[in-house]
Design a protein that fits this description.
This protein is mainly alpha-helical. The protein has helices at about 1-10, 15-25, 30-50, 60-80, 85-95, 100-110, 120-135, 140-150, 160-175, 180-210.
Length: about 210
Amino acid sequence: MRYVAKYFRTQDSTEASLDVLEKALEQTPNSSFLHHQIGLCYKKQLINMLQPGSGSRVPATLKRAKAEQCIQCFRKAVGLKPSNIHARINLAEAYGENQQLNEAEKIFTELLQDESLRDPDKQQVHTSYGLFLFYKKKAEDRAVAQFKAAYRMKIQSYNRRQAGKRLEQIAERWRKNRRAAEASQILAFLRAEDKNSAETEDLSAAFERGMKFK
C-alpha cells in the first residue's frame, strides 16, 4: 500500500494517495513513514496552490491551512522517529512557508550541528537551508554560504545542481546590482569546484582502469 500511495503522489494524484495512506495509517498509526508520506501529499497540494499559473487565485487562508496540515504531519513523523532526517527538513520548509521563521531556523541549525548526518543528507540540508535563507529571510550572503557548502560536496545530485543553479542566479543578480566583484568570486568558485570534480573523476577512472589490468 505504501508504494501504491507513493506512485499516486508522483502521478499528481494526491487525493488517491491520501486515501491509501490514511487506510494504512489505521493499521499502523505510529508509523513515522506514513505520517511523513501524508505530509508530502499535503506539501504537493501546497506547491500547486503557490504556482503562479494555477488558475484561480487561492485565498491566503487556504494556503495557511494547508501549510499547517504539512506541519502537523511532519511534526508527528519527527516525533515518532527523530532520526527521520527528511521529515525534519520538510518540517523546517513547512515552517518557512507558514512564516514561522524562528522554528525553521532552529531545525536547520540543529541539523547542521548533527555530526551523525550522512553526506547526502548534509548536502540536502545545506541546499534547503540556502533556499530558506534566500527566499524567506532575504539573507543572500548567508544563502550563498550554504549553497557553496552544498556545492563543495562532490556528490552529484539534484541538491548539488540546485545549489549551483542558485549560485549562478545570485551571481547574475549581483552583477547587475553593482556587486560585480562578489559575482565574479562566485563564478570563480564554481569553475574551481567543477575543475576539481573533473580531476577527481579522471583520477577515479584511471584507478579503475589500472585495477582491471592487475
